[in-house]
Write a structure and sequence with these properties.
- The protein is an alpha+beta fold and 178 residues long.
- It is built from four helices and six strands.
- Strand 3 and strand 4 form a beta hairpin.
- The chain is extended, with a radius of gyration of 22 Å.
Length: 178
């Protein structure tokens, strides 16, 4: 399925997906040489209000406030259903499924609900997220660490920057928070 299938063809931005490349060691094979891997460089973050305005701008039938009300109610209803043990299917968008984690007990009869340490959800993407790779346009950029070093150097009036990691920092960087 392509973007046109989901009604996004006129709203598809020409913005490219930026990524940086860093060297990472394989923790399962410590002796192996590091390999270069890509990390996405997020463009930004959409708040609920931003997303609702975006949705409203797509069709113009419902104002942002109505879309936001529906989205807030959707979240409340999904939470209610997950707490009842239901998996919630959102059509082509995907499925939200409740999950639990627990600590082990020495035997089946010693396991109680007190062993359950966490309840959460998994999201399984649906058809609307198929073929993202085929539709995306990528553009390589510098790592966030390199960008920060360059900015710091510029603030100091320097024309070069050094972002070589120290021996205990590693050469990769953590993913930005969603």
């Amino acid at each position: 399925m392509d973007g046109a299938m989901w009604g996004t063809e006129k709203h598809m931005a020409a913005k490219k997906i930026q990524y940086s490349v860093s060297l990472y060691a394989n923790p399962m094979h410590e002796g192996d040489p590091k390999k270069a891997y890509a990390s996405i460089q997020l463009t930004g973050r959409y708040s609920t209000k931003d997303l609702c305005k975006h949705i409203s701008d797509h069709n113009g039938l419902y104002p942002r406030s109505v879309v936001e009300g529906v989205l807030i109610q959707l979240g409340s209803c999904i939470r209610e259903l997950v707490l009842q043990g239901y998996s919630v299917v959102l059509g082509e968008v995907g499925t939200i499924t409740p999950t639990i984690s627990s600590t082990g007990a020495t035997s089946l009869d010693k396991f109680t609900s007190e062993n359950i340490t966490r309840m959460g959800v998994n999201f399984t993407p649906g058809e609307v997220f198929d073929n993202l790779r085929d539709e995306a346009v990528f553009e390589q950029t510098t790592t966030r660490a390199a960008q920060a070093a360059a900015l710091e150097a510029a603030k100091k009036g320097l024309t070069t920057a050094d972002w070589t990691p120290t021996s205990d920092e590693g050469e990769g960087e953590e993913e930005p928070e969603p």
